[in-house]
Amino acid sequence: MLAEYRVMGLFTDENQAISAIRDIKDSPWPMHRVHSPIPSHKIADALELKKSKVGYFTLAGGITGFFAGFLLAMFTASQWHLIVSGKPVISLVPFFIVGFEFTILFAVFGNVVGLIHQMQLPEYKGLEQYDPRCSGDCFGVMASCKAEELEGLKHFFQSKGGEAKVISNGLV
Amino acid sequence: MTELTFAKIDQIVLDTLKPPDRSYWVTVGILFLGVLTGAACWIYQILTGIGVAGMNIPVAWGTYLINFVFWVGIAHSGTLISAILHLLRAGWRNPIARAAETMTVFAVCIAGLFPFIHLGRVWLVFYMLPVPNQRNLWQNFQSPLMFDVVAISTYLTVSSLFWYTGMLPDLAVVRDRATGLRKKIFTVISLGWTGAHEQWRHYARGYLFFAALATPLVISVHSVVSWDFALAVVPGWHTTIFAPYFVAGAIHSGLAMVLTLMIPLRKVFHYEKIITTSVLENVAKTIIFTGLIVGFAYATEFFIAWYSHNPVEVAIFKYRPTGDYAIGFWIMVVCNTIIPLLFFIKHIRTTIFWLFGISICVNIGMWYERFVIIISSVSREFIPHAWGLYSPTMIEFGIMLGAFCLFFFFFFLFVKHLPSVSMTEMKEILDQGEDHAG
After folding, report:
1. How near does any CA of chain B get to the CA of A170, in Å?
2. Nearest Cα residue in chain B from A90
3. A75 interaction partners in chain B (CB closer than 8 Å)
4. In terms of domains, do A46 and A17 share one?
5. Contacts with A, B 61-120, CB within 8 Å
6. Cα distance from B68 to chain A (closest Cα, Å)?
7. Are the beta carbons of B158 and A126 separated by less than 8 Å?
8. Are residues A47 and A21 in the same domain?
């Protein structure tokens, strides 16, 4: 079995972190994660991230909500069997308002479910391989290497202007 | 702005979460006493009956409905700032977005209390829930009051989820710098957020959808509140202008409350470098805009009453500025439309004293706007022998005091226990090299 080390390069400068991300792709060290205190478009571009699928959950929630609201209003009205002022029992205009509110409500529920599902939260194990400075003013780039390459990886991060921190060493 | 760094932003905000001194707890205690006063009045009303309030035919909607509309209005600017200005990429919103969102959540909670209080027999509130029941009675969603139940519940749910989701990265910041019990609590409520790129990828998208959904919601909610009135055939209420008029008024009052809250917050927590005078100035400029819309709506109401040649409409609009509630009307006009025009003068909109003073005036004016709309119309409906006057009782004043105290009680607890400025959003504009002063 080989020992695998996980090393995090910590950068206070976003551009240095981006440079490290770009260069590590061409290196033999696999990159696992990038942590940042802000949602950075530059980092997203460097990582060539795909668009999130959260929107599909939101859309599904919205469609469900519209029909749920509209049908609920229709159902409750139909239980009365009562015509008021000659107006139809199933009135589209007022029920559209209920449908609209339910659309928003369920779309937001879908959005939250989508976020929880896609971000895989809550997930407390990730905190074991994490540096608290990444929520403050540091950008963290985590890569792994074999024992004999440890110094090389640390030197790589240092040469990019960052600080190299060994996060974990385990057996694979 | 140039003096701020990521670390400095964290330090300024986290300093606000240090253990408070005695004066803080004294203030919280006083507010809690106010809350107890309101609760005692409500309990007395429940035990004695709704007759202890001053409402009676023809004025069956009094301060409870005034306060309901007032607090829903206050809630609106939070969503304006957090959602609409987010979509418009207005950098100056970032320093005040969190506190405004919090204000929204608490204000909707307070607003939601008033229909319960107004019910009298509050234990029958479940009649408004569409659940199968042995009475075989179902809600009729043709009623604007049922629209309101749906709209306000949706607004409370959405704004609470929006608020919590927006706070997630900041909860992680607090967790990473806390110790002991606080660390444990923040570890749980931050859900294990690490700011990994996969998390940000979904988060940024989800937050955008939140903003996009909250924007039409905020407009619909106060429109629905306005239809509580506009769909009734009551002179002064039955008008199509009510929805935009109410939405503009809601944002007007909410922005004023933002200034009322932000100015002391900025002073007490030394937020001067984050909530700069320019940020407050931008809020003041928006108040000019909303004030002009509200003024236009007031004038339009009078014009349409005159133009319609409807004698009842004409009578009610003559009654408002000259009748029994004329003082309330003129407070409304002066505080909401004339005083905010002072913000056209740069010196006034950049001076803390004036900003705070005018924000208080607008708050008072907007409360009176709801008073004038609700009370004056129903006290002078179609038949003169059914006219009647209304004045609130001490019970109503006690409940109103309790509501205001509850709002500020929640807000005081919030500012010392959760980050009252979004550190992440401040860092974002710093990273983008934008000037958050706008």
Report:
1. 21
2. B142
3. 138
4. yes
5. none
6. 19
7. no
8. yes
pLDDT category at B409 given cuts 50, 70, 90 is very high
Residue B88 three-state SS? coil
> Is residue A45 in some structural domain?
yes
Instruction: Find chain B residues with C-beta within 8 A of A76's C-beta.
Output: 130, 138-141
Measured between CB atoms, does B197 come within 8 Å of chain A? Answer: yes
Is A126 inside a domain boundary? no
* Statement: residue B438 has pLDDT above 50: no
- Assess contact for A130 and A35: CB atoms under 8 A: yes
What's the total number of domains in chain A?
Answer: 2
> B117: pLDDT confidence band, cut at 50, 70 and 90?
very high
What's residue A4's pLDDT? 82
Write the DSSP string, A46-107: HHTPPPPSHHHHHHHHHHHHHHHHHHHHHHHHHTT----TT--SS-HHHHHHHHHHHHHHHH
**Ranges in chain A, pLDDT < 50:** 1, 172
User: Whole domain around residue A105: which residue ranges?
Assistant: 54-119
CA B366 to chain centre: 11
What is d(CA B144, CA B241) in angstroms, rounded to the nearest whole number? 16
Q: Is the ipTM of this complex over 0.90?
A: yes
Q: Where are the domains of chain B?
A: 6-121+141-431
Q: Is residue A91 part of a domain?
A: yes
Tens digits of residue pLDDT in B275-333: 999 999 999 999 999 999 999 999 999 999 999 999 999 999 999 999 999 999 999 99
Beta-strand ranges (E) seen in B98-237 are: none
The verdict on residue A90 lying in a domain is yes
- Domain B6-121+141-431 fold is Formate dehydrogenase/DMSO reductase fold (1.20.1630)
CB contact under 8 A, A104 and B139: no
